[in-house]
Amino acid sequence: MSLFYFFRKSIERQWGRFLLFLIGITIAVAGTLSPWMISRSMETALADAFDLVGANMIIAPPPGQYDMPLDVVESIFSIHESKNIAVVSPKVLGILDAPEGHLTIMGIAFDEEIRLKRWWSVEGEWPSSFRGDVPPHRYNHMSAKNLEEERAKWQVPEEQVLGEQVTGQQLQSLVLGRSLAEDRGWAIGEQVEIAGYHFRVQAILDPLGTEEDNMALIDIALAAHLLERPEQLSMIEIAALCATCPIEVIVSQIEEVLPGYQVEAVREAAEMRQMIIGRFTVFSALTGFVVAMAGIMLVGLTAAAQARERQWEIALLQAIGFGRKTVTLLLSAQIGLAGLLAGLLGYSTALGLSLVLWPYLAPGVMSPVTFFYPLEGLLTVLAASLVGMAAGYPIFSQTAKKDPARLLGSQ
Amino acid sequence: MSLIIAKDICHVYDSGERAYEALKKVNMSISEGEFVALVGPSGSGKSTLLSILGVLTKASSGIVQIDGIDVTNLGEEERARFRREYVGFVFQQFHLMPYLTALENVMLPLVMTSISKKEQKEKARLALAKVGLEEKGHRLPAQLSGGEQERVAIARAIVNEPPLLLADEPTGALDVANGNRVMALLTDLNKQGHTIVMVTHNPAYEPLAHRVIRLQDGAIVEGSGSLTRPGEVS
Ligand SMILES: Nc1ncnc2c1ncn2[C@@H]1O[C@H](COP(=O)(O)OP(=O)(O)OP(=O)(O)O)[C@@H](O)[C@H]1O
Ligand SMILES: [Mg+2]
């Protein structure tokens, strides 16, 4: 019989007790970790949600120029951190003649713009993108390969461009700023002719207090055509998910692919985000700490209870000729091994719990979340084992120092 | 020839604020092959003395010599090795590992030796045979009667063939029939050469011993042995 055999049997033939111990530690570890995992993912989700409220970057043409080519969009998606780019909303700005005087036109991609400006509310109905059958998200992942294809869809169909066929054309979507709508007396559903095109007022923005109040918003491709700046952009607004990658990194990567362009982080957004996320991070670090302490206590107490239960075994082993160190190490190693197993079980349980609970705790969160971090898992397993041993060892070694006769006596 | 010589053994239990003197200058010697009964009222220090003789407890002061070796100043690991080679303990509460079979329990003291696994098993079987349990080696302690468990404990104590067998009320937890059987077994083992010191509360067993050492309030009041006897060299 070897020491290991003895060790194995003590677990095998007392699996009930061992299981209890295992469950105790598993609950401690899982109970500690799953709230932590969820709160950390909440933090990421919150950060991502925050990044989606408004642009955190603006790109403008190089100083002295008014326009930049459409290809810039493609360049933006070529950066290394492109997976963190949530929305790219290009715009073209200009002035057009209209029956009742000049109009400030902002050409936008309707889908992208509204994803960026979630706080906008409108009377009427926000139009969908001009690009018809092209799903909006495809725009965001435009690659060099399908750019030509995309661009073709951006072209205004020939029959619409020709003035003679104006009557047969479909009505174009128009969104008005509140002040502009009131100035001109235009209401929802009204048909307006601008530069030979027929528009229908689809929506009127609620007052914003910004330039948009005096603007007419139309599809970007049509605007570029009407302004006679085909495939040109005035500016691009970008919302990036920065929870996992700081905005400065994205800015510098874009600057690299677009040398000379003006790439600016929207400072207010960045600062505000930093403040809110920062607070949340401090909060979750604090809870993490408290909860880790509780976990260590629980694991420690469970291990200590186990150690106390086995005191007489220590005495007996000593009486039959095992050295004090051997006994202490033997039993500590058993607890350590159990801790290792329990840590593994506990971490898996925490992972499972987080995955199961997440949809209920954070409904509607779209951003993908990661619960599993291998290093964290490894640390947890090691910690459970070490904490178990650290809690068991002093008890074992103290017991081993006590007079064994006392523990084996008839009382 | 003396197997055990104890000189001026004092033992003080120091539990917090009050110290208790459990043994006061105990002197004794026990010869090789002797069967000694250690008796006395409860609390008189019997278990304490037994534990000191078995090198399990370190006396507060005094000298213990076993087989000519002064064990008083041995280090922790040496004491463990000494117990392994010289002493077999039997307790009133059998103290068998509940997760090991009878045979495995008997093998336990051999784990720390360099004996091969096969030989370990052989020795354990032999020890079990000596206590009449060769058939029940595969059983767990819970599947054995109290008397059988005590006999397994005795087999464990003798598996290493130690010269000295120390038994602390080995019949204390047993009925008369089982108690008698254990006593017969101990007598037998004594005849086979084991020196035995046994604590007992049962006066009926005293005549089975060669000598009775009586303790009272931590001092020997009867049968201290040959230490002070003329002609005995210490
Ligand atoms: N760890 C200890 N701390 C304090 N006092 C102790 C300790 N162990 C034993 N004693 C005391 O020392 C005295 C002797 O104890 P011991 O166990 O040797 O008695 P005993 O003769 O074996 O008694 P019993 O017949 O009841 O088993 C007792 O009064 C006991 O209360
Ligand atoms: Mg006693």
Overview of the molecule:
The complex is a heterodimer of chains A (411) and B (234). Helices cover 56% and strands 15% of the residues of chain A. Chain A has 411 residues and is α+β, with helices and mostly antiparallel strands. In chain A, strands 1, 3, 4, 5, 6, 7, 8, 9, 11 and 12 form a ten-stranded mixed beta sheet that branches. A two-stranded antiparallel ribbon of chain A has the order 2-10. In chain A, strand 7 and strand 8 form a beta hairpin. Mean pLDDT of chain A is 78; it is low at 130-148 and 154-169. Chain B is of the alpha/beta class and 234 residues long. Chain B has six helices and ten strands, in the order E-E-E-H-E-E-H-E-H-H-H-E-H-E-E-E. In chain B, the strands form two sheets. A six-stranded mixed beta sheet of chain B has the order 6-7-8-3-9-10, with helices on both faces. In chain B, strands 2-1-4-5 form a four-stranded antiparallel beta sheet, covered by helices on one side. In chain B, a hairpin with a 2-residue loop joins strand 9 and strand 10 (219-222). The longest helix of chain B has 16 residues, at 176-191. The relative contact order of chain B is 0.21. The structure holds adenosine-5'-triphosphate and magnesium ion (MG). Magnesium ion (MG) is lined by residues 46-47, 168 of chain B. Chain A: Residues 288-404 form the ABC3 transporter permease C-terminal domain. Chain A: It is found in: Cell membrane.
